[in-house]
Each structure stands twice: as C-alpha cells, then as structure tokens.
Amino acid sequence: xxxxxxxxxxxxxxxxxxxxxxxxxxxxxxxxxxxxxxxxxxxxxxxxxxxxxxxxxxxxxxxxxxxxxxxxxxxxxxxxxxxxxxxxxxxxxxxxxxxxxxxxxxxxxxxxxxxxxxxxxxxxxxxxxxxxxxxxxxxxxxxxxxxxxxxxxxxxxxxxxxxxxxxxxxxxxxxxxxxxxxxxxxxxxxxxxxxxxxxxxxxxxxxxxxxxxxxxxxxxxxxxxxxxxxxxxxxxxxxxxxxxxxxxxxxxxxxxxxxxxxxxxxxxxxxxxxxxxxxxxxxxxxxxxxxxxxxxxxxxxxxxxxxxxxxxxxxxxxxxxxxxxxxxxxxxxxxxx
Length: 337
Fold this sequence. Notes:
Blueprint: E1 2-4, H1 21-29, H2 43-75, H3 78-91, H4 94-104, H5 119-147, H6 155-183, H7 186-213, H8 219-246, H9 252-263, E2 268-279, E3 282-291, H10 297-314, E4 318-327
Parallel strand pairs: 3-4
Antiparallel strand pairs: 1-4, 2-3
Helix pairs in contact: 2-3, 2-4, 2-6, 3-7, 4-5, 5-7, 5-8, 6-7, 7-8, 9-10
C-alpha cells in the first residue's frame, strides 16, 4: 500500500446562476450548495474562517438584539420582549458550532485517528433540532392566535422590531451560508439556515403588524402559518445536508472528476475504485489503481504519488488521499510492498 496525505489546495469556481426571481427564491429556501465553489486554501485556514464567521454573526445578532431591547423598553410590549429573548437564545446556538470548529483544529490522536472534524456534524444536528423547534413554536403560536386572537398593541414599534430582526438575521444567514459553502461546512450552512428561520419569524411580526394596522387582525396568525411552512422548507434542506454528511455522501461529480483524472495518469492502466468522505469540512479520498506489473517498486511508488498529487488539485477541498497500487495482470489482488 502506498499512501500520501496532502493538504487541500484552492479551487476557484464562479457561480454562473442568473439573477432571476425564481432562482433567488430557490436560493432562500434551498440554497444550492456547490461544495467546490470558492474554496479556501488550507484546513487550518478554513477552520479559522468558520470560527470568524460565527464570531461576526454573533456580534451582528447581538447588536440586533440590543436594538430590539431598546424598542421593547420604549414600547413596553411584553410580546416583543418574549420575541427578543427567543432571538437571543437562538443566536447562542452558534456556540456549539464555534466549539466544533475549535475541536476540528486539534491534531488526530491514537483514539481519534481521523481527528475531530465530525464534531461539526454533531453541532449540525443540534442546529437542525433548533430549526425544528422554531417551526413547532411558530406553528403552535399561529394556531393559538387563530383560535383565540390576541390584540397587538404598539403596532408601529412592533413593526419596527420585526424589521430590525429580519434584516439582522438575514444578513447573518447570507454570511454564514456563503462562508459555509466556501469552506465546505454543512453545519455552518445549516446554522445560516437557522438564522434565516429567525428572520422569517421577525418578518411575520412585521407583516402581521402591517395587517393589523390596515384593519385585518387575523393577518398576524395567518402570516405566521405561512412562515411556518417556509421554515419547514428550510428544515428539509438542513436535514438533507446534515444527513448526507453523516452518511459520508459526496457530490458524485467529485468521484467522476477523480476517476477521469486518475485514468489519465501515465502508468495507470485502470481505476478500480474511488471512495470519498467528508470529515467536518475536510475531504478524504481512497483510490485503487491498476498499474503495469512490469514497472519497478520505485516507479509504482512514483505513479501513486503523482496520482495523489493530481487528486489534490482536481478535487476541491481534498485534504488527504491514499492510493493503493495493484499489478494489473490476471486480476491479481497483490499489492506492491
């Protein structure tokens, strides 16, 4: 067996999607994740970028909460106070992800031989649970207000608080999702979707207040139900992405790219298999190659090394690769030693 580990290299792919409304709408509810897009060089640098994204988003959400608290003080609205506390508690769910990124920078040990990158996926599960909780709370509250309408006081202040909450959360959502894609972190993208659900909740507050101001008090719970459906759509995307990571799923085009590149390597007569898995936001690959049995051990080593080097350049975010070289004749399973 011949194996070499390489740190990942930068690959820059440009998003060619148009600015059409339909595409923008799909991007909000189910962001199309190109794991290959705009990757950041280096495993440690990508972890640092993830931690920086969490820190900055917490600052933005903290500032948003302070503005909302100020509005609560001026308006005296207990409902607004409850919504502000909800937003603050949801913002704090980024802390487990911060811890996961920090753990991911630790070196592998004899017990955790692949390192601690999986902590990101565990944090992602927590984020998914919080999105689900948001959907449940929004749905239950909307139904309750349909059955037993509650008058909204200080409509102007309520609308302002909703606007502030929506802008703050959506900015954080866009930032987290963008950085999460760049570093290949499904958990950070899920956390961005979580911030988006909070933004939807604030948007419901804003639209509901507008409906009440126009003389339609049931606008508040009706819009709440619509927002609940939107949160469920976001939840579906988050569950799908985190589930795929936990099941070691990768973009099939990565495998196609790897197989094509390996088959074109000088000295390689065939590609038996290519397997890949994400460990946090780092990608690992194992490949089995058929090589002319007439070559020397040194040449076989060189061919495998060159193949690994090629993989780290053609596959985005590939952190390490292990290539197994087999003699091609008579289907032999013997490896060079």
